[in-house]
UniProtKB/TrEMBL annotation:
Entry keywords, A to Z: Membrane, Transmembrane, Transmembrane helix
Record-given protein name: Mce-associated membrane protein
Source organism (scientific name): Actinoallomurus iriomotensis
Any GO CC annotation of this UniProt entry: membrane
Biased composition (Acidic residues): 13-48, 55-76
Length: 257
């Protein structure tokens, strides 16, 4: 009996050894098998795209940030674009636009020319009318002014104020007038009271006027005599201006206003 017990004893595990050694079942449950580890661990091909995607995403974000920064800097530094007028690319429209501008310019020019010509005629007529009025007043005053002490000077003024038949009559009768004035020793003066142009043909160079004049005759002795008279004058335009071509008394009732 003792021998049998000694042979079987080595085969029975010690309780301390059983406690120290891990159980096979628990170790198998905790550690994955090689197949499972291979299935869970990603391959290099699967991991590289994810890494590349991350790198591409980071690069794109960097480029976008850089572009935004460059755009802001460019907007701040670059001058603002100027507004350009639209260009006409169609030749027909371009020619039409040019013709419209030319027509407007021509219309303005010819309209102004017509307006200017019309007013030039009016201005020319007004100038002739004023010249006739001045010539009539001066002529009537000269023809009624004569000093026996200055007969030649007075007669020269008569001739210078007249033209045509009236001028010829004065030239032919100047000697006789001179003798009469010297003999009478009179001094005649004239003052124009009023005058008006009654007719004017600027193309024909003919005009008429009524002149109211006050004439004073001073004899060598005695009191000066004064009278008022209305004279009708006919005037003709000459190379030296408007001059008297006829002079006489105006009909009664004719006024110079």
């Amino acid at each position: 009996m003792a021998r049998t017990t000694a042979e079987k004893r080595p085969t029975e595990p010690d309780e301390a050894d059983e406690a120290a050694e891990p159980q096979p079942e628990e170790t198998a449950a905790e550690e994955p098998t090689p197949e499972e580890a291979a299935a869970e661990e990603p391959t290099s091909e699967e991991a590289e795209p994810e890494h590349a995607a991350l790198e591409e995403t980071d690069g794109d974000a960097t480029e976008v940030a850089g572009d935004d920064a460059d755009g802001v800097a460019a907007d701040e530094d670059s001058p603002k674009p100027r507004r350009r007028l639209p260009r006409i690319s169609d030749p027909v429209l371009l020619v039409a636009a040019v013709l419209v501008v030319v027509a407007a310019v021509c219309a303005g020019y010819f309209g102004w020319s017509w307006y200017g010509a019309a007013h030039d005629d009016s201005l020319a007529y007004s100038r002739d009318r004023d010249a006739v009025l001045r010539a009539a007043e001066q002529g009537v005053q000269n023809m009624n002014t004569l000093d026996y002490r200055k007969v030649e000077q007075g007669l020269a003024s008569w001739e210078a104020s007249t033209t045509g038949d009236l001028h010829q009559q004065l030239v032919q009768g100047s000697a006789q007038f001179s003798q009469q004035v010297r003999a009478a020793k009179t001094v005649t003066t004239a003052k124009i009271l009023d005058a008006a142009v009654t007719e004017l043909d600027d193309r024909a160079g003919k005009a008429g006027a009524i002149v109211a004049v006050q004439i004073t005759v001073t004899p060598p002795t005695g009191t000066p005599a004064t009278k008022q008279s209305r004279m009708r004058a006919q005037l003709t335009r000459t190379s030296s201006g408007w001059k008297l071509s006829a002079l006489g008394q105006a009909p009664v009732g004719t006024t110079a206003g």
